[in-house]
Amino acid sequence: MSILVTGAAGFIGFHVSLRLLAEGREVVGLDNLNDYYDVALKKDRLAILCRHKNFTFVKLDLMNGEGMEKLFREAAFDQVINLAAQAGVRYSLENPKAYVDSNLSGFLNILEGCRHNRVEHLIYASSSSVYGLNTRMPFSVHDNVDHPVSLYAASKKANELMAHAYSHLYGMPVTGLRFFTVYGPWGRPDMALFLFTKAILAGEPIKVFNQGLMQRDFTYIDDIVEGIVRLLSHLPEADRNWNGADPDPGTSPAPYRLYNIGNHSPVKLLDFIDILERKLGRKAKQELLPMQPGDVPATYADIVDLQSAVGFSPHTTLEQGIGKFIDWYRDYYGC
């Protein structure tokens, strides 16, 4: 089986590709190696993947329509895992066009490639950010999500709508995954765990937004990967009981499904920092700040559908996950 993983040099794409290669799969990894964060980190991830004989790297931007069309036509992928996107809530306030280009135009090229080349299953990354102003906890895929609070979130909601339209029109099996605050080794430098660890080790203050009262459903990378790999072979089917008079946002009469992948255990940011301090053996200098535009006070994943579909629940504790991240960080940066 030939599998396309987009964003293969990114955090999640790297780990997913490693897992698939370990299982003996043929993986084509696509990435444009943009400079949203340290390109050297992306290249180091890529260097590890390129050691595997079953891995092929393609440097290509999702927005390159002709390049994407040629890649799909010549490679004849059986399955596609789309993890490439312009990430980051706060950056969407500074550079909104990047989100339209990558997350909308680029995703359209993925959908077209799958449509015209009979891809067996498309899995794509959405985000817990789509829940926006929702306050009913835990967040469920069966809840309406029409009130995003950032362009990033809006672009991910748009991905879900676009994917559903293609699934409905062309019978494409498509699965959307809403990830909840992913962390772990080889993580993104713009995420809290990376930023906090770097600052604490350097003796610099950390920026703690909303006075540290925010809650996040931190999810360890290995749990994210396990969910993706299990769902890859779990093709969605049409829900014959779906009712247009009382539409369920989480299912469809098309072969389309949405799943949350989260730890189902929201943690206060101050508690998160406390665990990090204990693992590092150092106290953080905290700069308490108000809530940032585009942020939400809490996230909390309802994973009943994931459990029902593939019998899996994320289970890595923060103590375990943060410990593994710190081990990697100290080894990678020699500190």
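The record above closes out task 2.4. Task 2.5 opens with a second protein, given below.
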Amino acid sequence: MIKDAAALARMAEAGALLAQVFDALGRLKLEGMSTLEINDFVERMIVEELQARPASKGQYGFGYVLNSSIDDVVCHGVPSRDDVLRGGQIVNLDITLEKHGYIADSSTTYLVGEVDYAARRLVSATYQAMWKGIAAVRPGARLGDIGHAISHYARAQGYSVVKEYCGHGIGREMHEDPQVLHYGRPGTGQVLQEGMTFTIEPMINQGRAAIRAHPDEWPVYTRDGKLSAQFEHTVAVTRTGVQVLTLRAGEKPLCRLG
């Protein structure tokens, strides 16, 4: 769905507020916190401080404001008081926020305490892969260009790309058209147009791409038990390129924005 200037301004406002949430999480000492404590911290900040709505709560019957996916959990991790974060783990926190009727969606994979080199390398490569996809966004490009940029980079680093889950259009609804696959062939797929807004959110596995899920898909795990990482930004196609609506304070873009 193409957004006009007023809608894009609302989405940028929601994205900036969500970026504040991640800035606050970056200052927390996550080690020793339960994922439910983190969930409650985020809910208080969104509702009380930012005067916004946690868009995930109640969506599809989900009772929390974020997904917390630890180590071999690919996505859809459910906050719990029993999941206390320990040094050496990685955890993806995936959060949505609605303000004035428009939704922003973003996630970050955090290193908890002292994390080994293999895990740090995976997390770094996943972040880079997301930015490779963002760099492919501009009017006239195609969705396949985004997916190819992500998968080509990830596979060159020795990792695999989860195919069952993808980015998505976003705006007044959390999930809109189009679907944004994290693999593909250059020059294929829908043509990008100014005013389109969507997420880019690759899930990159340390081992094989195969996953296993509970029947309700809460949560989803790597089938081989190896680590999985994810990063996500909400972006808008501009007249000259791309705007990252959920860019954090102090986050240095890894591609040209415009």
